[in-house]
Amino acid sequence: MEVKDTNCTSLGYGKPPWIFKGSALYQLHLVKAENARAFIPKECKLVEAFGYTLGGFFLASYDDSPAGIFDELVVIAGLVWNPPTSCAWAARVLVGSDEACLHGRKVVGLPSQVARFSKKITALPQTSESKSSSFLRRIGLRTSSSNYKNHMDVEVTEIKKQTAMSICNINVNATASQQDSKGWMGPLIKMSLPNFSGRTKYNSNLLKYSCQIECRVRAVQPAKVSGPSALDADKENSSEDQSSNVESVSRVPRGTKRNFSISVMLSKPILALEFNHLKMRVEAPTTVTACSHDTT
User: Fold this and answer.
1) Residue 293, in any domain of the structure
2) pLDDT-based confidence at 116, cuts 50/70/90?
3) Above 70 in pLDDT, residue 152?
4) pLDDT band at residue 183, thresholds of 50, 70 and 90?
5) Is residue 296 part of a domain?
6) Phi, psi of 151 (to 5 degrees)
7) Which residues contact residue 190 at a Cβ distance below 8 angstroms, ignoring those fewer than 6 apart?
8) Number of domains, the chain
9) Between the CA of residue 106 and those of 87, 112, 204, what are the distances in Å?
10) pLDDT at position 6
């Protein structure tokens, strides 16, 4: 597959690679293939089995980045073949930064939108307590606070043309670093996450880029995701969905892109990984001439 370099020196991000530091939740879901195909260009082949692909979301909080401090929610539609492996395809990227949104759209070819991330941490009682824990608490060796577990609600609201549209609410357990700086946060690992992007009104090229990640990782209980009370498709009739003649966008019926991305968030979770002490190195995207359909 022929690949050409792209010109990535633009905006306030400076020259690549771009470094992001913070923490994140990476959650994998079983996504219906028919929903994922709505976002993927025709020339790309979806990785699927029994009518499902592997999608999910990446919820990150950056305390250091080229765009400063901001939150990000990447909704992953599914996986696309890139033999001998595969690449993720983002259905929607919601960021709490105007600069990050513009960079994502024009340089990385992402379907980025500005969003507001409202966070609320609450302490909920544990559902059960072992006999030994109960005894230790009664004799004063364990405080009553041990019967509570911190939960954080993240309300994600998309901001478009001065209009606020609720996307979802994500209920996650507070990270070990938030609860106890001495808490076990898993082993230190290095990994690469390859991605396809582009084919949008802001960048019509088919692009490929990679995220090199160093972090402490541990498996956690999947976050509970709830959607907005009503999916008002009419609010999606924006210029993004109406005026683009790029095929991957025109394949999505007008007014359904937001609903499809919400359906990904509400699909069945199968694995959740918590990334702490995250350092993510994003390489410059390259232009790809075509997706490969060869799966051998």
Assistant:
1) no
2) very high
3) yes
4) low
5) no
6) -125, 145
7) 212, 213, 214
8) 1
9) 20, 10, 10
10) 52
The pair of structure tokens assigned to 173 is: 């357990």
DSSP states of 140-173 as a string?
A: TSS-GGGGEEEEEEEEEEEEETTEEEEEEEEEEE
Cross-strand bridge partners of residue 46: 80
Residues whose CB is less than 8 angstroms from the CB of residue 112 and which lie 6 or more positions away in sequence, other chains included = 93, 94, 95, 100, 101, 102, 104, 105
Residue 216 near residue 188, CB atoms below 8 Å:
yes
| 159 has pLDDT over 80 | yes
Question: How far is Cα 26 from Cα 223, in angstroms, rounded to an integer?
Answer: 10
**What is the distance between the alpha carbons of residues 81 and 181, in angstroms, rounded to a whole number?**
40
Is residue 142 over pLDDT 70? Answer: no
Task: Give the model's confidence band at 2: pLDDT under 50 very low, under 70 low, under 90 confident, else very high.
Answer: very low
Phi and psi at residue 24, to the nearest 5°: -160, 160
Residues 5-16 have a mean pLDDT of: 69
Share of the chain above pLDDT 90, in %: 62
Q: Is residue 221 in a domain?
A: yes
Tokens of 23: 């923490």
Pairing between β-strand 286-288 and β-strand 268-282 as defined by DSSP bridges = unpaired
CATH number at residue 59: 2.40.400
Given pLDDT bands bounded at 50, 70 and 90, which one contains residue 233? Answer: very low
Range(s) of the domain holding residue 35: 3-288
Distance from C-alpha of 155 to C-alpha of 57, rounded to nearest angstrom: 14
Residue 294 in domain:
no
Structure-block tokens of residue 156: 């994600």
* Other Cβ atoms within 10 Å of 200 Cβ, number: 21
SS3 206: strand
Q: How far apart are CA 99 and CA 72, in angstroms?
A: 12
* Residue 83 token pair: 């033999």
Residue 60, CA distances (Å) to 73, 177, 271, 274 in order: 6, 14, 16, 10
Contact 122, 25 (CB under 8 A): no
